[in-house]
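Subject: for your reference before the review

Hello V.,

The reviewers asked for a structural picture of the protein, and I figured it would be easier to keep everything in one thread rather than splitting it across files. Below is the amino acid sequence we used in the manuscript, unchanged from the supplementary table.
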Amino acid sequence: MVDENERISIRHFPDFMQKQHTLLNEEKGILPLHEAVEVAEKQILETSLQSCGPTVGERQEVADLLGISLATLYNKMKKYNIK
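And here is what came back from the structure prediction:
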Protein backbone atom coordinates (compact mmCIF):
# COMPACT_ATOMS: atom_id res chain seq x y z
CA MET A 1 0.00 0.00 0.00
CA VAL A 2 1.37 3.40 -0.95
CA ASP A 3 0.12 6.97 -0.86
CA GLU A 4 -0.91 9.04 -3.87
CA ASN A 5 2.76 9.79 -4.60
CA GLU A 6 3.58 6.04 -4.59
CA ARG A 7 5.56 6.31 -1.36
CA ILE A 8 5.30 4.27 1.79
CA SER A 9 4.56 6.62 4.64
CA ILE A 10 4.44 6.19 8.39
CA ARG A 11 0.68 5.77 8.36
CA HIS A 12 1.13 2.49 6.48
CA PHE A 13 2.93 0.89 9.46
CA PRO A 14 1.54 -0.61 12.68
CA ASP A 15 1.14 1.63 15.71
CA PHE A 16 4.24 0.31 17.48
CA MET A 17 6.34 1.41 14.53
CA GLN A 18 4.65 4.79 14.23
CA LYS A 19 5.59 5.56 17.83
CA GLN A 20 9.29 5.29 17.09
CA HIS A 21 9.66 8.98 16.31
CA THR A 22 13.44 8.86 16.25
CA LEU A 23 13.28 7.00 12.94
CA LEU A 24 10.88 9.42 11.31
CA ASN A 25 11.83 11.91 8.72
CA GLU A 26 10.29 14.83 10.58
CA GLU A 27 9.85 16.89 7.46
CA LYS A 28 7.85 14.32 5.48
CA GLY A 29 6.89 11.67 8.03
CA ILE A 30 8.39 8.88 5.92
CA LEU A 31 10.58 6.00 7.06
CA PRO A 32 13.31 4.92 4.68
CA LEU A 33 12.53 1.33 3.70
CA HIS A 34 15.74 -0.15 5.14
CA GLU A 35 14.97 1.45 8.52
CA ALA A 36 11.38 0.23 8.45
CA VAL A 37 12.56 -3.30 7.71
CA GLU A 38 15.05 -3.14 10.59
CA VAL A 39 12.42 -1.88 13.01
CA ALA A 40 10.07 -4.70 12.02
CA GLU A 41 12.83 -7.33 12.13
CA LYS A 42 13.96 -6.26 15.60
CA GLN A 43 10.38 -6.30 16.90
CA ILE A 44 9.77 -9.79 15.48
CA LEU A 45 13.02 -11.07 17.00
CA GLU A 46 12.28 -9.57 20.41
CA THR A 47 8.74 -10.93 20.44
CA SER A 48 9.86 -14.38 19.31
CA LEU A 49 12.70 -14.58 21.83
CA GLN A 50 10.45 -13.53 24.71
CA SER A 51 8.51 -16.75 24.20
CA CYS A 52 11.56 -18.98 24.70
CA GLY A 53 14.24 -19.56 27.27
CA PRO A 54 17.94 -18.85 27.01
CA THR A 55 19.12 -22.34 26.08
CA VAL A 56 20.54 -23.14 22.68
CA GLY A 57 17.76 -25.68 22.09
CA GLU A 58 15.05 -23.12 22.79
CA ARG A 59 16.72 -20.55 20.57
CA GLN A 60 17.11 -23.17 17.84
CA GLU A 61 13.33 -23.62 17.99
CA VAL A 62 12.84 -19.87 17.48
CA ALA A 63 15.31 -19.88 14.58
CA ASP A 64 13.44 -22.81 13.00
CA LEU A 65 10.10 -21.02 13.37
CA LEU A 66 11.57 -17.90 11.75
CA GLY A 67 13.10 -19.92 8.95
CA ILE A 68 16.69 -18.90 9.70
CA SER A 69 19.75 -20.70 11.02
CA LEU A 70 20.79 -20.48 14.65
CA ALA A 71 23.94 -18.60 13.56
CA THR A 72 21.79 -16.05 11.73
CA LEU A 73 19.59 -15.65 14.81
CA TYR A 74 22.65 -14.94 16.96
CA ASN A 75 24.04 -12.52 14.36
CA LYS A 76 20.75 -10.61 14.29
CA MET A 77 20.62 -10.57 18.10
CA LYS A 78 24.08 -9.04 18.11
CA LYS A 79 23.14 -6.54 15.39
CA TYR A 80 20.12 -5.31 17.38
CA ASN A 81 21.78 -5.67 20.79
CA ILE A 82 19.24 -8.23 21.96
CA LYS A 83 20.37 -10.31 24.94
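For the response letter, the relevant points are probably these. The two ends are 34 Å apart (CA to CA). Residues 9 and 30 are 5 Å apart (CA to CA).

Happy to draft the paragraph if you're swamped.

O.
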